[in-house]
């Protein structure tokens, strides 16, 4: 109950700040519309209004404050406008409609999951190699770190162009970008987890004459599972970001990235914010699902109560 109240308090504070921020952000547009509607606006001319700050405009035109939360194309939409857009585009549209966020979310989710699986498998294999091979530890790990210093927004168009030039289209280019972002946390987490058994545990296995393979399956791998799930939670969120970024340079017509692009083209900020919240909700659901799987697996292993 205390946690719920704490979360509710934070959400209420964010909503209050959001509503307050809408007033100065949207006041210029609201006053232009009010002037066209015949209202008395202070200052009277658009040039004078441009020369003074938004806060001063709000104080001189208090009557316009409610309208800043109800503009059709606001600079910053109010929370209730985003909530209405989310409701309309998820529950009031057929899921096969291109105006449905469920449809666009599914397109992005498909690329996300494929990229996540590729990135996870690649990350686990690299981690196993790094832990068991000094050469791979010295050669691969630094390059894995360096690869994450390249901005994905610059790398994504190059990946798309290269894959398109060799005839690879559809979901795979986006999945490759997702895998690129998701494999690194898996590598780091698994390396840490596979190296987590202490010297006494490893010595105990040696006294039993256990092979390296037996040591891996019976000690290193079980010890790495908690680290793996922590990495997977980061990886799935990064994979979703990669899928959305992968939709941007292709001019995609489906997917959450496509909704963001369409919203930016036509000045539909409400649509942009709704797509952003849909992406956040999708990421939260995926991380929550992984958390549930983690609890089940660790409980069966006897690690968690």
From TrEMBL:
<keyword id="KW-0812">Transmembrane</keyword>
<comment type="similarity">
    <text>Belongs to the binding-protein-dependent transport system permease family.</text>
</comment>
<protein>
    <submittedName>
        <fullName>ABC transporter permease</fullName>
    </submittedName>
</protein>
<feature type="domain" description="ABC transmembrane type-1">
    <location>
        <begin position="101"/>
        <end position="294"/>
    </location>
</feature>
<keyword id="KW-0472">Membrane</keyword>
<feature type="transmembrane region" description="Helical">
    <location>
        <begin position="106"/>
        <end position="131"/>
    </location>
</feature>
<feature type="transmembrane region" description="Helical">
    <location>
        <begin position="270"/>
        <end position="292"/>
    </location>
</feature>
<keyword id="KW-1003">Cell membrane</keyword>
<feature type="transmembrane region" description="Helical">
    <location>
        <begin position="227"/>
        <end position="250"/>
    </location>
</feature>
<dbReference type="Pfam" id="PF00528">
    <property type="entry name" value="BPD_transp_1"/>
</dbReference>
<dbReference type="InterPro" id="IPR000515">
    <property type="entry name" value="MetI-like"/>
</dbReference>
<dbReference type="GO" id="GO:0055085">
    <property type="term" value="P:transmembrane transport"/>
</dbReference>
<dbReference type="InterPro" id="IPR035906">
    <property type="entry name" value="MetI-like_sf"/>
</dbReference>
<dbReference type="GO" id="GO:0005886">
    <property type="term" value="C:plasma membrane"/>
</dbReference>
<feature type="transmembrane region" description="Helical">
    <location>
        <begin position="171"/>
        <end position="191"/>
    </location>
</feature>
<keyword id="KW-1133">Transmembrane helix</keyword>
<feature type="transmembrane region" description="Helical">
    <location>
        <begin position="143"/>
        <end position="165"/>
    </location>
</feature>
<keyword id="KW-0813">Transport</keyword>
